[in-house]
Design goal:
Helices cover 68% and strands 7% of the residues. The chain is mainly alpha-helical.
Amino acid sequence: MLDKLAFFNSTAFLTLCSTRCYQIYTIEGIVMLYVSWNDKLSIGMPDIDFQHRQLVNLVEDLDNAVRSGREMDYMSNVFGGLAIYTLYHFSTEEKYFAISGFNEAAEHKREHDAFKKEVKDLRAAFESGCKESAFRVVAFLKDWVEGHLKGSDQRYIETFAKHGLC
């Protein structure tokens, strides 16, 4: 844990963050990242962008709860929101995969399945009383926004466009 904290407070980490969609703040000397919606996250499909914005809003709300010390009160809302999000958002994307014949659909679905498993594990940690669970959820969701929305989701845009979906 200390190695990770040292990295989060390092110049290399702060330089890395400046190239991404994060704003930086600190809590008790620990560097935290504040993610917010921006055009880099858009894929150009109003329904999927709306759903992605909902996820980013959930992350922002949890961030605000962490910064104000109310994270434990807010965690059940987060897990409820994630359950709803995964149900409708992943099914929306996967429907478009089928319509467009997206050739990376199986890999993308594996990422969705890994997300659901991680959320389940994080929820179990929270329900068992893990005091760090809010920070773990924030870190996981921010990684998902950065890696999945700005990475994996960007790969289907061209296929969707060829099929008139965006």
